[in-house]
Amino acid sequence: MNRYAVVLAAGQGTRMKSKLYKVLHPVCGKPMVEHVVDQLNALELKNVVTVVGHGAEMVSEQLGKRSEYVLQEEQLGTAHAVMQAKDILSDQDGVTLVVCGDTPLITKDTMDSLLSYHEEQNAKATILTAKADNPFGYGRIIRDENGSVQRIVEQKDANEAEQNVTEINTGTYCFDNKTLFETLQLVNNENSQGEYYLPDVVEILQQQGEVVAAYQTADFNETMGVNDRVALSRAEQAMKKRINEKHMRNGVTLIDPDATYISPDATIGQDSVIYPGTTISGEVVIGDETVIGPNSEIKDSKVGSKSVVKQSVVHNSDVGNDVTIGPFAHVRPSSEIHDGVKIGNFVEVKKSVMGEGSKASHLSYIGDAEIGKEVNLGCGSITVNYDGKNKYLTKVEDGAFIGCNVNLIAPVNVGKGAFVAAGSTITDDVPEQALSIARSRQTNKEDYASKSNDN
Ligand code: UD1
Ligand code: CA
User: Fold this and answer.
1) Are residues 446 and 304 in the same domain?
2) Chain mean position to CA 282
3) What's the pLDDT at 29?
4) Which atom of ligand 1 is closest in space to residue 138's alpha carbon?
5) Cys staple from 199: which of 86, 108, 152, 185, with CB 3.0 to 4.6 Å?
6) Domain that holds residue 34
7) What digits encode the pLDDT tens for the residues 164-218?
8) CB-CB neighbours of 158 under 10 Å
């Protein structure tokens, strides 16, 4: 059977009290709606249609080609939102999942089970429900004495008895597609909020004698809806726990999972160890037996196996195997750190290649540089890559030795195996195997101090 999905993401999210549209608020570094759409894309669906309104451009830019978009110009309620997908979906045979963009913890497995249950039950509509310790704010599932679902009543429309119901509407449903769009036309807005409620479709179908099913998930956390920042922090906690436990089960040691922040799009190899205070964000791949942290930040980067990154920052870069970075180093975007490299304390690397086995052990700036293999960059050596207007390249070829406190004024080339004496300021290319000294000679004025004291 063909499967489709509609993601509701047009609301402003007033309760967030934010300039940022609700569904773009990140959970573990990734916007809520993106979590939802990525889970949907892991299912085999013919179309994923996201209903956008507030922040439409930002939402569609964030999700890109992962979804199609329809615009809900005025936010008249969730039923009205789904209606906007009519032109794309109403003629299709099959089943449509409807998911809210503010339920970031929902998983593809649960949605898959919901779809299977819906098909087994031959239902026209199936609601994903959950038991909530504190159901406040959610729509409640009202069942008859036989346990069949009658309708869903919103918090604001619920009487006292209804408010005591703890089974909630998670905001995820599936519907026979054609039935959905036919029934949406019958929904009215006669309720306390004056909105067209999607859950009203359930009552209409029930009254028409159609099969309406409910699939209760055991894990309330997974269905949590985020309407304010308190719920946002709970979602963050739950997502963090889920991600961290996944890595631990895969063979990664997290010394203190509560103080370890890993993006949902990170892969970490076996026997790697992550120390507290570490943030791994965006798309990151880390190999086996690598140690990260404490207090490190890895973003959109690759780090190989058996490497160590401590008290350091690595952004948008590629780090090889057996590399040591830190403590207190900064690898900035577009850097390639090859196998066996050492980047020690107070070293900054930007848009540079460090060839295999090269070392910058202390206090260096390496920017716009191509450093060959087995190069030694002495303490305090720097590339002078910027003249206030333009950036220039520095090249240091294999096996060269750059002494302490050397300025390499770019554009400049140091040939293979060359030596540059400590304290030199290099403005011209250094040939292969040469020794270059570029500093004034030392003069000692004998007895200078005692003579000046005599005056
Ligand atoms: C909704 C459900 C409630 C359920 C809860 C689960 C309705 C009427 N109520 O309530 O039964 O328990 O979700 O989390 O559906 N949206 C639009 N266009 C609109 C209105 C909303 O796209 O016109 C989007 C919002 O951006 C949001 C989602 O739909 O992502 C849900 O809307 P929200 O206002 O958060 O509904 P709840 O009050 O949480
Ligand atoms: Ca909500």
Assistant:
1) no
2) 4
3) 96
4) 12
5) 152
6) 3-223
7) 999 999 999 999 999 999 999 999 999 999 999 999 999 999 999 999 999 999 9
8) 19
**Residue 331 shares a structural domain with residue 357:** no
Distance 170 CA to ligand 2 centre (A): 9
Probe target for ligand 1 pocket from 6, 7, 8, 197, with the most ligand atoms within 8 Å of CB: 8
Catalytic machinery residues: 362
Q: What is the pTM for the complete model shown?
A: 0.92
Read off the CATH number of the domain in which 265 is found.
2.160.10.10
- Whether residue 209 sits in one domain with residue 294: no
Q: What are the helix (H) ranges across 17-77?
A: 32-41, 56-63
Q: Which of 8, 72, 78 to mutate to test the pocket of ligand 1 (most atoms within 8 A of CB)?
A: 78
Q: What pLDDT is attached to residue 414?
A: 98
Ligand number nearest CA of 142 is 1
Are 298 and 197 part of one and the same domain?
no
Instruction: Pick the residue whose CA is nearest to atom 13 on ligand 1.
Output: 171
Whether 234 is covered by a domain: the verdict is no
In sign, the C-alpha dihedral spanning 118, 122, 124, 130 is negative
Domain count, the chain: 3
User: Same domain for 178 and 48?
Assistant: yes
239: enclosing H helix or E strand: helix 229-249
Q: Which of 105, 106, 128 has the alpha carbon at shortest distance from 116?
A: 128
Q: Is the pLDDT of residue 338 over 70?
A: yes
**394-445 confidence digits (pLDDT tens):** 999 999 999 999 999 999 999 999 999 999 999 999 999 999 999 999 999 9
pLDDT digits (tens, 9 = 90+) for 117-145: 999 999 999 999 999 999 999 999 999 99
Contacts of residue 47, Cβ cutoff 8 Å, sequence gap at least 6:
4, 5, 68, 88, 89
User: What protein residues have CB closer than 5 angstroms to ion ligand 2?
Assistant: 102, 225, 227
